[in-house]
Specification:
The termini are far apart. Strands 3-2-4-5-7-6-12 form a 7-stranded mixed β-sheet, sandwiched between helices. The longest helix has 15 residues. It is 35% helix and 19% strand. By secondary structure, the protein is of the alpha/beta class.
Length: 320
């Protein structure tokens, strides 16, 4: 069982699925000759050839639109968008076509495709390279939104996403690409979409996170008896696991790096209020990015929720 970082684990998942199923192909900017901007698709061109690892023009709408057509004709494309901030140009293809195809055809057609994109802040890149806009896509019926938090679940979730009959947006936390190493089996395995995992168990507070924030939450909760939940799939999210934990602890803190207003944490807080309010000992607290554009390098560390900010929120809720 090799030790891998997230880049290597995702590459392994792509390589295994492409070898197993010749309908699987990779398309995107620089995914072939250069192996992707973060080298996630490195080596795939040499192994599978230019018909299955396709370098596309710099046109995100064209990349996603081509993937939609391929999926409708029986292929299983994995489209890479270099950074989440570049995905906005493909909204029409995602909203108007990929996400609606099953409903539009009344179930006659499905759209089995994956859109992979690095997302999130912390690498101190220029504007539009550190976006965390997952809530846009969680509002969209017909598409699943998946966020791994480490190499092991990145591989298992991506394999499940490629095999899913409907479109999946697969958000890869840029800050974690080479930050964390885990044991990742060579053999095939999958992790179910729509299922959260409890990373740490405790009885006093529930802390919910996803993506790169999980690593900081695990550090922040060390002094507490806390349930730590890694959502892994945001849409559809695992209500049962979240509510069961909150009913046990009576306290909830939600952590994400996206802006606070209309961030996905608001949906979680509303669900907890609707379904578990009689169990709560205090308000549902959110620790998030601020309601501003993701700042440039000098201010990124102040923008992102850090261990101290998360711990301060837990201290506050524990006083109730």
């Amino acid at each position: 069982m090799p030790t891998c970082n997230m880049v290597q684990a995702i590459n392994l998942a792509l390589r295994e699925e492409m070898a197993k199923d010749d309908r699987v192909l990779v398309i995107g900017e620089d995914v072939g000759m250069d192996g992707g901007v973060f080298r996630v698709t490195d080596g795939l061109l040499g192994e599978f050839g230019p018909e299955r690892v396709v370098d596309m023009p710099l046109a995100e709408s064209g990349i996603v639109g081509a993937a939609v057509g391929m999926a409708l004709y029986g292929l299983r494309p994995v489209a890479e968008i270099q950074f989440m901030g570049f995905i906005y140009g493909s909204f029409d293809q995602i909203f108007s076509h990929a996400a609606r195809m099953r409903n539009r055809s009344r179930g006659r057609f499905c759209c089995p495709m994956v859109i992979r994109t690095p997302y999130g802040s912390g690498i101190k890149a220029p504007e539009l390279h550190e976006e965390s806009a997952e809530a846009f896509f969680c509002h969209m019926p017909g598409i699943k939104v998946v966020v791994p938090s480490g190499p092991f679940n990145a591989k298992g979730l991506l394999v499940s996403a490629i095999r899913d009959p409907d479109p999946v947006l697969f958000l890869e936390p840029t800050r974690l690409y080479r930050l964390v190493r885990e044991n990742v089996p060579d053999e095939e395995y999958t992790l179910p979409l729509g299922k959260a995992r409890i990373v740490k168990e405790g009885g006093d507070v529930t802390v919910i996170a996803w993506g790169s924030m999980l690593e900081r939450v695990v550090k922040a909760v060390e002094p507490y008896s806390a349930d730590v939940i890694d959502l892994m799939t945001l849409s559809p999210f695992d209500e049962e696991t979240v509510l069961e934990s909150v009913r046990k602890t009576g306290r909830a803190v939600i952590v994400h790096e996206a802006a606070k207003t209309c961030g996905f944490g608001a949906e979680l807080a509303a669900t907890i209020a609707e379904e578990a309010i009689l169990y709560l000992r205090g308000p549902v607290l959110r620790v998030t990015g601020y309601d501003v554009h993701v700042p440039l390098a000098k201010l990124v560390d102040s923008y992102l929720p850090g261990v101290d900010r998360i711990r301060k929120a837990i201290d506050e809720i524990m006083r109730y």
